[in-house]
Amino acid sequence: MRSGIVKSMTVMTTVAMLAVGLAGCGGGSSASSSDKGRVYFLNHKSEVADQYHQLAKDFTKKTGIKVDIVTAATNTLDQTTQSELAKKDAPTILSIGMDNFPKFKKYLLPIQDTDVYKLLDKNGKEYSMKDGNDSFTFPFAAEYYGIIYNKKIINEYGTKPYAVVKSVDEIKDYATLKKVITSIQEHKDDLGLQGAVTTPSVDASDEHRFVSHMSRIPLFYEYQDSNTTFKPELKGTYLKNYKDLFDLEVASSPSNPKTASNKTYDDCVAEFSQGQVAFFPEGVWAYPLIRNNKVADEDMGMLPYWMGIPGEEKMGPASVYDASWAINKKTSKANQEASLKFIKWMVTSEEGKETLSHKMSFSVPFSAFNDKYQPNNVLTLSARAYEKQGKPLVRSFNLPSTQWGDNLANALLEYTQGTKDWDNVEHSYIDGWQKDWKQVKQTTGALPTATKLH
């Protein structure tokens, strides 16, 4: 989640960005008057770019307000945002996440007094990114991540004489999960599998699973020990648990550790979606990429991101309200109003609600999204079910920088390939954390506000 938690299977991983102007497109008004302002939306979710374009087209047709959309390629949001903000006609709506909020906060309009902010539900308002009394972002997707599983494979495994569980329902903690993964890997040929877990490639397209998702699990529990939501220095208390799970994935995947980085995120998705492995550590956003392949909806579920940390069995998967819209305060008042009008239309109109919830599969934290407008995403339903069982979701907290993530990914790659040891990973995580937050403070003049977690 370096610049937004979702990464996708797309040819845009090889290009800088895709820009599509929508004025006058498909019946839209090409003569929208300047006093109406214009909307220029910098999107970072390439897997739903087509749906955004259709919404923009419909909005232009209804209002006469011109809408342009640019979609940043995977792993380029920070660079693209910086580049686009330097232009005369800069984006009016920015895609902001926890990790790039400190960097771009100076460009953002406080939005707590807007009509759109008032439409956020309780969680949406709570997770709007703040500085003091000001709120700056509209979260538009509550997302969840953990360990996705193929129920059919595990239940078939459960019929074997060597099985350590009879069904996935018996996997209730990391100790059991580890035994199941190890056993499936040992008997993969008999089960017709290539491995137990998807390849941890740590390729540039796949590294987010380990530096943006998995890294936040030990962070949450260290924060929980200190009852805080932020620390500029870490002890790395639970990195040994991270290592245990990472080692398990490396040893139980279809790939040789020394060449695992040759696989891309697309390859890892394919391993799971084609039924070649039983487990896939990832988030609900992967559902559109998995479905309609060889894993039926009824066979998909999500386990929490267990790694042997005391008390983790009482928690559910991890949650994140990272994907957010923000308004550029440096654009004209007319453009700001047009942009707010576009966002309001997306979260209140039938077209917008239907598209965001059902076509994009977002769980949207705005009050207009009742039970009718929840995503048809079995992984979201699986993750949310833990809350109904009384198990709180693990919270996701800010990471310091893209550079911190890149350095951690490089250290993991070197560890996987056997060229450096685990101490180098811990150094990147702990020392890099302190160094990069210090740099953030020097650059922005502020750090995330530390409040009590409980």
Automatic annotation (TrEMBL):
<keyword id="KW-0813">Transport</keyword>
<protein>
    <recommendedName>
        <fullName>ABC transporter substrate-binding protein</fullName>
    </recommendedName>
</protein>
<comment type="similarity">
    <text>Belongs to the bacterial solute-binding protein 1 family.</text>
</comment>
<dbReference type="InterPro" id="IPR006059">
    <property type="entry name" value="SBP"/>
</dbReference>
<dbReference type="InterPro" id="IPR006061">
    <property type="entry name" value="SBP_1_CS"/>
</dbReference>
<dbReference type="InterPro" id="IPR050490">
    <property type="entry name" value="Bact_solute-bd_prot1"/>
</dbReference>
<dbReference type="Pfam" id="PF13416">
    <property type="entry name" value="SBP_bac_8"/>
</dbReference>
<dbReference type="GO" id="GO:0055085">
    <property type="term" value="P:transmembrane transport"/>
</dbReference>
<keyword id="KW-0732">Signal</keyword>
<feature type="signal peptide">
    <location>
        <begin position="1"/>
        <end position="18"/>
    </location>
</feature>
